[in-house]
Design a protein that fits this description.
CATH class of the largest domain: Alpha Beta
Order of helices and strands: EEEEEHEEEEEEEEEEEEHEEHHH
Helix content: 10-25%
Number of helices: 5
Distance between the termini: 46 Å
Radius of gyration: 19 Å
CATH topology of the largest domain: Double-stranded beta-helix
Length: 255
């Protein structure tokens, strides 16, 4: 198996497969594939637990219920996954001593043997997240996975005990050795008039963290003043139909 990232602002992940090799993605991530690759849709795909319970656990962590498995049959082939927003696609190699936590829509694709599950969940009331809350995906198991982050990506290596306080939307990815907690922004004036979220995510080393500059929640809030009443109506409709950005905007409108 070989992989490469094509492009810069709107990158594409291309995974080359030898006969019999497979890669798994969430339903809806597929962009294009060569003729030798066959697709099968199901609840497992080798990603995390099997059956309905495994699918529900993955869905609680921000994943879809269904996964697509792409397998090269008879000859080599490739399958591609295009980024949904300007940003970066990062490969991470998982193993017994290498686990990661990613933002709720971070997982893009992985090999069978990668496990995707909920890592953390907390509901927020008010602030830029509206009703979305803060959810992390846990990436574990064995093999390579690819994570999609939005905007520019800034990396920090935290020493033991070193602390970084982060707006929840900018948390992209971090090693499981980094401890974290959600902390309410101190002071009523800061919380309600500061123009930022009501909570910090406090990341404490040791370990590496990847922060994203343009999370979809922040982008949605930035666009809100320009949508007007008609835009608000379209946003609500998009949320009802299951659009990710529409659902987030609808949550902000309801908060």
């Amino acid at each position: 198996m070989q992989d490469k990232i094509i492009g810069t602002t709107m990158p594409v992940l291309e995974v080359g497969l030898d006969p019999g090799e497979s890669v798994v993605s969430e339903s809806g991530e597929f962009s294009w594939m060569s003729g030798a690759v066959q697709m099968a849709t199901g609840m497992g795909g080798g990603i995390g637990g099997k059956g309905l319970m495994g699918a529900l656990k993955r869905a609680a962590g921000g994943s879809s219920l269904l996964f697509n498995t792409f397998t090269a049959e008879g000859s080599p082939g490739f399958v591609s996954f295009a980024a949904k927003l300007p940003g970066q696609i990062l490969p991470v190699d998982l193993g017994a001593e290498a686990e990661y936590l990613a933002h709720r829509h971070g997982f893009l694709a992985g090999v069978p043997g990668v496990q995707v599950s909920i890592g953390f969940q907390q509901s927020f009331r008010g602030g830029i997240f509206g009703g979305e809350g803060f959810i992390l995906q846990r990436l574990a198991g064995n093999g390579r996975a690819w994570v999609e982050l939005s905007g520019e990506v800034v990396t920090f290596d935290l020493d033991p005990g070193q602390v970084m306080r982060v707006h929840p939307g900018h948390v992209g990815l971090f090693q499981a050795s980094v401890s974290f907690q959600v902390e309410r922004v101190p002071g009523i004036a800061n919380r309600y008039f500061g123009g930022d979220a009501h909570h910090f995510v406090v990341l404490t080393g040791p370990g590496r963290i990847w922060l994203q500059s343009m999370p979809v929640t922040v982008l949605a809030a930035s666009l809100m003043p320009y949508l007007g009443d008609a835009g608000a109506g379209r946003t609500a409709a998009a949320g009802a139909s299951g659009g990710v950005a529409g659902g987030i905007l609808g949550g902000i409108l309801r908060s």
